[in-house]
Write a sequence for this structure.
């Protein structure tokens, strides 16, 4: 064989197979549905082209108001999240307050909790028939209604401020002490130092966390659906348009979906090109000093932080407590019972099983594909893998409800008749949660020295076997930790499930939603408690596996 | 068992940058061969081409008479020791060393005997159950070595294997490596940018610069008879002094006049006249009193280093040269400001063309 011949040898090896399989799957299950959605939004259903749905959207207040509402709720939530998260992060990292560990754990649990239990709990407390509302009614005080804009922002803020808190505490801990000491040495006062040194240094991280808050609020579906009532945001409108049986609305839902995708893409690009430009890589050899304050001050600071933390954690307590309260139809009555649990195990055991089975299968697929794909992205860089990378990350900008709609549109008739099956739910989960696993696996892979693999190859083990014998075991702890986090978000997934479920494939989160809508608060609470407890146990497992080396955000 | 390695006109390009430029080498069976050169000169690139981790853009590499250009890295039968050891972190010492044997489907009992033997050779048999994280740098180094030799490779490659160790351990380990290599008689290609290490350990050295070979020779020859200014300057310390060949006889005896003011004659290998560069090692200068013939200069600075004194001497033309004088040959250290006269033995100096690319003495 000559040297030339070798170069042109067609290499159809293991990694090419992985690469092309992934491309085909993503084109079928992600690109194709998105395109169908796009065509739906500009089709007049007679094979012609029209922009009337977009025109309707921008001219009719009923529609364009939701865009305004979405931006208003997400924007205000982001502001509040920063106002809560940054001071709290500063206090917990820089002062010797009590209960730091507890605060961290509760904040993480709030962030990972099922998405709509916040709305549920605040309705149970402050809603029309809420415990607190009734309590105040007895003494003659009427509390303003929780429904609408205020309620959404309250729930969103308490749910998403942990992003800001966790990101910013991380950044504050990684500023080397010398930086602030230098500023002090140059004669800067404390406030001046915070404003001119500390704040600018954490700015990129703060920006990234703000974007996370904004994007999560923008895509959130369960909360505004439950607590928004007349105050509609975009994802809710997508759901209603698509689910109502009247003709023509599917096209409108398509147009709305495209608008949602455009919005989140714009926000993400903004982040990419404005904020992440200047990222100060810090590696604190000497983390900043923790200031000792007097007992009184310490008590005050601890109480402040604990107050916010408990407020954020409250929904989980409410859910668990109410799940044990006796009910009479939709009404909670005096006394405790296991009635709600009996009801759900009797009525909908299938939904509980579905949640865990679907999520487990989805996570298994995500882990295998996530590891293989991240390997391709890191070690087999090429134009194709670059394209694949973009494809895999695409779901970041597609809210669950929109992804659900697109899959329904694409797979509601043969040859791929998938609507109502377990497969379509699992596929949606895989596509939605894959980006996170790929990102974290990629980060882990970058930390593995390439010469370790080369050593294995050099010792006579083929590159593919080397991946399974050396690379995969080394990646495993990190990937597993990431998988547990994805598992948590998958069992709690509502927005795509509610679009895609059929009679036999409903999940716990779907049932909670339907139960709340029917005002069966007891059973809803029992179901939510199952998710909450599973989430907590999974977080404990996460801590065991990750040994504190992997961050939850 | 061991191969001779033949490298023919090998080229490696990254875009329009040529990292290895037309390198040819003939490495003998059982030889300890070192690639030495400044950072970025292409040593690692060439080594990785031999290992199969970099493709060969042009040229050929043979192990014995087997062309290996198109053989996959995992089928090349080379052992490699990496700069950062590349120990598998999730396997213990024993399993690290056994890894290559398992891949070769060696029977279990034989794996055991061979692993234990290899561990013994590098003197870490009592660490066999340790995890890599529980080993010191030197111990990890030994594991890497054991893992590479246990498969009895036809060629052993090492890329700066000692650069992560402290100075003392480095000297200790280089002796271990050298002894091991001679014991196993395994063709070894060793990469370093530490010239002292290269001189101490190698049978032959290839000096590289900017992807090209500058000289391939025994350590002593490299030191005493550098083929160009680059080698003369890279290995050890050399003083370069400008001069002119004013005339050259039929029997190649040249008359050379140094710009610093000395005229002498010596035999050259090539018939040239005009400007040349002379290189003189600090220890080859002989310091005499100012009234004797030689290059006149003045002591600017001295450093007493125990077995010798290092002087900086300023010549009449303003150039400063390094001159060493052995303590055993002198009674006192010359004070700053003393006027001296420098001479040398013409057999111990090298004369280069003015552009420095060729030796003519
Ligand atoms: N993958 C690559 N792409 C582009 N250029 C490269 C690549 N690998 C190496 N180079 C370049 O090739 C040249 C030779 O690199 P090489 O690693 O062989 O140097 P070296 O002699 O081993 O240096 P050192 O002593 O620092 O290890 C360098 O200029 C380097 O920048
Ligand atoms: Mg190198």
């Amino acid at each position: 064989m000559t040297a030339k011949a070798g170069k042109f040898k067609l290499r159809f090896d293991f990694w090419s197979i992985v690469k092309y399989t992934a491309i085909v799957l993503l084109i079928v299950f992600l690109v194709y549905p998105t395109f169908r959605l796009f065509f739906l939004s500009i089709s007049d259903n007679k094979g012609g082209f029209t922009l009337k749905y977009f025109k309707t959207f921008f001219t009719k207040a009923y529609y364009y108001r939701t865009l305004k509402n979405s931006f208003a709720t997400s924007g205000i939530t982001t502001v509040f999240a920063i106002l809560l998260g940054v001071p709290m992060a500063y206090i917990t990292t820089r002062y010797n307050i009590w209960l730091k560990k507890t605060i961290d754990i509760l904040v993480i649990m709030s962030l990972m909790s099922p998405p709509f239990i916040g709305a549920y709990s605040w309705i149970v407390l402050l809603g029309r028939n809420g415990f607190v509302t009734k309590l105040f009614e007895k003494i003659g005080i009427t509390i303003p209604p929780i429904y609408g804009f205020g309620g959404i922002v309250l729930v969103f803020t308490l749910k998403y401020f942990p992003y800001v808190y966790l990101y910013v505490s991380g950044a504050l801990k990684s500023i080397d002490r010398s930086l602030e000491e230098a500023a002090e040495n140059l004669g800067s006062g404390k406030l001046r130092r915070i404003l001119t040194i500390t704040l600018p240094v954490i700015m990129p991280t703060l920006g990234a966390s703000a974007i996370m808050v904004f994007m999560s609020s923008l895509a959130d579906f369960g909360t505004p659906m439950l607590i928004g009532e007349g105050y509609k945001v975009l994802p809710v409108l997508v759901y209603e348009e698509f689910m109502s049986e009247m003709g023509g609305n599917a096209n409108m839902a398509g147009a709305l979906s495209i608008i949602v995708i455009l919005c989140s893409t714009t926000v993400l690009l903004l982040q990419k090109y404005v904020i992440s430009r200047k990222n100060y890589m810090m590696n604190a050899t000497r983390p900043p000093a923790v200031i000792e304050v007097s007992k009184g001050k310490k008590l005050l600071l601890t109480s402040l932080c604990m107050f916010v933390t408990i407020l954020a954690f409250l929904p989980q307590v409410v859910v668990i407590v109410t799940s044990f309260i006796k009910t009479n139809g939709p009404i909670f009555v005096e006394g405790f019972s296991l009635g709600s649990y009996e009801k759900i195990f009797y009525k909908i055991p299938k939904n509980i099983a579905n949640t865990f089975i679907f999520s487990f299968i989805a996570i298994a697929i995500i882990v295998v594909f996530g590891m293989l794909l991240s390997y391709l992205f890191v070690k087999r860089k090429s134009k194709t893998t670059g394209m694949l990378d973009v494809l895999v990350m695409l779901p970041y900008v597609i809210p669950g409800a929109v992804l659900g709609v697109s899959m329904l549109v694409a797979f509601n008739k043969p040859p791929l008749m998938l609507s109502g099956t377990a497969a379509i739910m699992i596929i949606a989960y895989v596509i939605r949660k894959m980006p996170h696993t790929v990102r974290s696996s990629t980060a882990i892979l970058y930390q593995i020295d390439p010469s370790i693999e080369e050593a294995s190859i050099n010792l006579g083990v083929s590159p593919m076997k080397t991946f399974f014998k050396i690379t995969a075991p080394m990646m495993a702890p990190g990937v597993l930790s990431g998988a547990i986090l994805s598992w948590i978000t998958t069992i709690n997934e509502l927005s795509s499930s509610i679009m895609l479920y059929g009679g036999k494939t409903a999940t716990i989160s779907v049932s909670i939603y339907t139960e709340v809508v029917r005002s069966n608060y007891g059973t809803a609470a029992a179901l939510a408690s199952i998710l909450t407890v599973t989430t907590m146990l999974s977080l404990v497992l996460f801590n065991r596996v990750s040994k504190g080396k992997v961050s939850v955000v | 068992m061991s191969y001779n390695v033949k490298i023919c006109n090998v080229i490696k390009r990254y875009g329009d940058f040529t990292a290895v430029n037309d390198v040819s080498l003939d490495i003998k069976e059982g030889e300890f061969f070192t690639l030495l050169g400044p950072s970025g000169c292409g040593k690692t690139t060439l080594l990785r081409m031999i290992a199969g981790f970099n493709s060969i853009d042009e040229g050929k590499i043979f192990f014995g008479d087997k062309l290996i250009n198109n053989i996959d890295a995992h089928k090349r039968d080379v052992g490699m020791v990496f700069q950062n050891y590349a120990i598998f972190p999730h396997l213990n010492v024993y399993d690290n060393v056994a890894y290559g044997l398992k891949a070769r489907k060696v029977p279990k009992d034989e794996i055991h005997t061979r692993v234990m033997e290899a561990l013994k050779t590098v003197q870490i048999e009592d660490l066999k159950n340790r995890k890599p994280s529980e080993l010191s740098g030197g111990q990890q180094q030994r594991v890497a070595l054991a893992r590479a030799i246990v498969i009895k490779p036809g060629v052993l490659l090492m890329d700066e294997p000692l650069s992560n160790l402290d100075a003392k351990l480095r000297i200790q380990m280089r002796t271990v490596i050298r002894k091991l290599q001679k014991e196993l008689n395994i063709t070894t290609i060793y990469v370093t940018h530490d010239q002292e290490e290269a001189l101490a350990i190698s049978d032959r050295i290839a000096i590289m610069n900017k992807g090209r070979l500058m000289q391939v020779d025994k350590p002593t020859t490299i030191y005493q008879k550098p083929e160009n200014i680059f080698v003369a300057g890279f290995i050890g310390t050399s003083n370069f002094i400008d001069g002119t060949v004013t005339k050259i006889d039929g029997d190649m005896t040249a008359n050379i006049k140094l710009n610093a003011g000395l005229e002498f004659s010596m035999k050259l290998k090539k018939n040239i006249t005009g400007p040349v560069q002379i290189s003189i090692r600090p220890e080859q200068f002989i310091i005499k009193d100012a009234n004797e013939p030689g290059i006149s200069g003045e002591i600017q600075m001295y450093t007493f280093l125990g077995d010798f004194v290092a002087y900086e001497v300023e010549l009449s033309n303003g150039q400063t040269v390094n001159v060493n004088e052995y303590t055993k040959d002198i009674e006192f250290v010359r004070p700053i400001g003393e006027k001296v006269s420098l001479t040398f033995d013409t057999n111990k100096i090298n004369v280069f063309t003015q552009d420095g690319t060729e030796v003519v003495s």
